[in-house]
Amino acid sequence: MIRLTRINETPFYVNADLIEFVDQTPDTVLTLTNGEKVRVRERAEEVVERVIVYKRRVTGGGPGMADAAEPEG
User: How far apart are CA 57 and CA 5, in angstroms?
Assistant: First the structure.
């Protein structure tokens, strides 16, 4: 889940896996997989970045991250 802010300043959490589209119109509009649309205050790029950070956290860092975390020697 990622934390976002509705246009009326109300914070909420959305399941990142349910986001199908992120449009900048100029408001940022999320279209969920069930067709529901949600306008948020964050820019589209910020929403995408939060999804990436969330997915990395859930998957343990993504390809190559585990090797980079291992101490050498």
Answer: 21
H or E element: which one contains 64?
Answer: none
What is the average per-residue pLDDT within 19-33? 96
What is the edge-to-edge ordering of all strands in the sheet holding 28-32? 19-24, 28-32, 37-40
Give the span between the Cα atoms of 41 and 33, in whole angstroms.
20
Cα 30 from Cα 23, distance rounded (Å): 7
34 CB contacts (<8 Å, ≥6 apart)?
Answer: 18
Q: Which of 28, 35, 34 is nearest to 49 (CA)?
A: 28
pTM of the model: 0.79
